Amino acid sequence: MHATVLYAPRDVRYEDVAAPTILQPTDAVVSLPATCICGSDLWPYRGANAITGPTPMGHEYCGVVEEVGRDVKAIRPGQFVIGSFFASDNTCPHCRAGYQTSCQRRALVAGAQAPRLRVPLADGTLVATRDPPSDDLIPDLLALSDVMGTGWFAAEAANVTDGGTVVVVGDGAVGLLGVLSAKQMGAERIIAMSRHDSRQKLAREFGATDIVAERGDEGIQRIKELTRGVGADSVLECVGTPESMQQAIQATRPGGSIGYVGVPHGVMLDWADLFFRHVRLLGGPAPVRQYLPQLIELVFSGAINPGKVFDLVLPLDHVAEGYRAMDERRAIKTLLRP
Ligand SMILES: [Zn+2]
Q1: What's the mean pLDDT in 75-91?
Q2: How many Cα atoms sit within 13 Å of 276 on the Cβ side?
Q3: Confidence of residue 184 (pLDDT cuts 50, 70, 90)
């Protein structure tokens, strides 16, 4: 089997690897009709994370179960399933509290930019759809594996409420789906911060009522103007840089909440500043598993189309071009077909 392996910054290869097999009795092997590249894959691709050796890439997946280990009870071969980037048992105290990405037995899923994938803790990790999806639903279901679930968590963590005012910092796939999530949760005003035409357009399609193209102090100034000097009730931080976090903190009203889901790189907070701002912070790797049943229903009912974030489709063996396109911001998110 061929799969995607990162060797060094900007050196990503589609090459021969051992095909995935059942290693633990709780594993499943899933055949993937499509896979994709995540914005967070760009951190190691750009050299922002150390690469210690050849690294199998990809953590977003959905597909048909081919094989399960002997201890897997609920998941069966032939089912169409979706899972999160962290495998979880869904039974430990953290899972039961809804934080499956902090599972006591969590295991990172890696190697999904490939035609087949081994998923640990299959019973806890995978959610099966009631019926096999039609082919046109595959991009929407694939998006649930990470970006849609992450946007949803950002909105929930930011305490988005019916009629509330929301700011979304970041116009990548997660930010755009944060807009969609806030809309679903009933936000009345959704201000998307974006400088990019095609992303502004998609943000509006997903429910953004205002676009702010300015950044830094000017960006904050615009948010203040749009909220009568008050700031937003809820702010979704979907980037992970010191600048984006500052933007989020300053856009929030006293008593407001920030949901931060951009993987932090070099972010340091001034706690005294934070103390006087009265903002709530909740973030982390999104517990996507918690939301999968609900989000699968929303996709099947046609209420949401998160697959619209895929604006580039390539054959899987062109994966390197998919990375380049996202790195150069020519594409929001690349879908890959084996
Ligand atoms: Zn657990």
Answers
A1: 97
A2: 3
A3: very high
Q: How far is CA 55 from the centre of its chain?
A: 20
CA angle 178, 34, 32 (to 5 degrees): 115
Judgement on whether residues 293 and 273 belong to the same structural domain of the protein: no
Enclosing domain of residue 161: 148-283
- The total number of structural domains in the chain stands at 2
Q: What is the CA radius of gyration of the chain?
A: 19
Give the bridge partners for 190, in sequence order: 166
The structure's pTM equals: 0.96
Centre of ligand 1 to C-alpha 184, Å, is 28
- Characterize the bridge pairing of strands 11-16 and 2-8: antiparallel
CA of residue 285 to ligand 1 center, whole Å? 14
pLDDT single digits (tens) 274-310: 999 999 999 999 999 999 999 999 999 999 999 999 9
Cα gap 252→88, rounded to integer Å: 33
Would you say 233 and 166 are in contact if contact means Cβ atoms under 8 Å apart? yes
3-state secondary structure at position 268: coil
Q: Report the run of H or E that residue 118 belongs to, with start and end.
A: strand 116-119
User: From the CA of 122, how far away is ligand 1's center (Å)?
Assistant: 12
**Looking at residue 242, which CATH number applies to its domain?**
3.40.50.720
Interval between CA 103 and ligand 1 midpoint (Å): 3
Kind plus residue range of the DSSP H or E element containing 243: helix 242-251
Tokens 């021969």 belong to which residue? 16
Reduced to 3 states, what is the DSSP secondary structure of residue 83?
Answer: strand
